[in-house]
Amino acid sequence: MSTTIKVRGYHLDVYQHVNNARYLEFLEEARWALFEDGQLLRIFAEKNLGFAVVNINISFRRAAVMGDVLDIRTEFAGFGEKSSVLKQTIFIAGTEKVVAEADVTYVILDLNTNRAIVLDDDLRTLLSSAS
Length: 131
What we know:
The protein is an alpha+beta fold. It has helices spanning 20-37, 40-47, 121-130; strands at 2-6, 49-60, 69-79, 83-92, 98-110, 115-116.
């Protein structure tokens, strides 16, 4: 799954490149797009389930500046018993120039109990099919 974001002036810090905290927002926007496009939000709402990020590791590779168009690629990278990892890579659109890479670990919550649930085969298939 790919999401495009154009860098605007309000994304910049005093050094005129994207502030590191903004990358978290860009990555979140791409995850929301993945979950919406794959119908996961609708399906999870019907089952009273939710997503909760529990860890994010980001490596910054190059600066993005105003006017850059960023291509954020999101894919499922693996599963644990109760968690899953999304691999997200931010590129300068139209190139293979990596701006940042992130591994995002999340759990699926039962919203009735607010506890992480075991990712059974059906959930793994559903999550994998979204990317």
